[in-house]
Amino acid sequence: MKKKHTRQNEYCPLCGGLIEDRTIVHEERDAQGHLYIFENVPARVCDQCGEVWLPAATIDLLDEVIAKAKPKKTVETPVYDLAAQR
Ligand SMILES: [Zn+2]
């Protein structure tokens, strides 16, 4: 496996798995409940349990993008209420 840089290995505080740099699809909700989906988000992901950490700079960028950028596309999201399924 090729590494872009030589950072010391970090391990997951939850399961002890190796944490890797990956790009993920991230979902974010604002205070009004609007859902935003971000593609190609740089994140740190546990190889073992899949726990995701977003660097503070990435979180700031998400807010900035919502405020300023035009989305690539807008999708409809079906919402189901399991309490209504009997
Ligand atoms: Zn883990």
Description:
With 86 residues, the chain is α+β, with helices and mostly antiparallel strands. The protein has one domain: Ubiquitin-like (UB roll) (Roll), CATH 3.10.20.860. 15% of the residues lie in helices and 33% in strands. The protein has 1 helix and 4 strands, in the order E-E-E-E-H. Strands 1-2-3-4 form a 4-stranded antiparallel β-sheet, covered by helices on one side. Strand 1 and strand 2 form a beta hairpin. The longest helix has 13 residues. It is flat. Bound molecules: zinc ion. Zinc ion (ZN) binds next to loops.
What keywords describe this structure?
4 strands; binds zinc ion; 1 helix; 86 residues; alpha+beta; four-stranded antiparallel beta sheet; Ubiquitin-like (UB roll)
Largest sheet: 4 strands, antiparallel
Mean pLDDT: 90
CATH fold annotation? Ubiquitin-like (UB roll)
The assigned structural class equals alpha+beta
Level-2 CATH architecture: Roll
Share of residues in helices = 10-25%
Count of helical regions: 1
CATH class: Alpha Beta
How large, in whole angstroms, is the Cα Rg? 16 Å
Secondary-structure element series: EEEEH
- pLDDT < 50 stretches: none
- Report the end-to-end length measured between terminal Cα atoms: 49 Å
Count of individual beta strands: 4
What small molecules does the structure contain?
zinc ion
Q: How many separate domains?
A: 1
Shape: flat
The largest beta-sheet arranges its strands as: 1-2-3-4
Strand content: 25-35%
Provide the fold topology.
Layout (H helix, E strand, L loop, with lengths): L9 E2 L6 E12 L5 E12 L5 E2 L2 H13 L18
Antiparallel strand pairs: 1-2, 2-3, 3-4
The structure holds zinc ion (ZN).
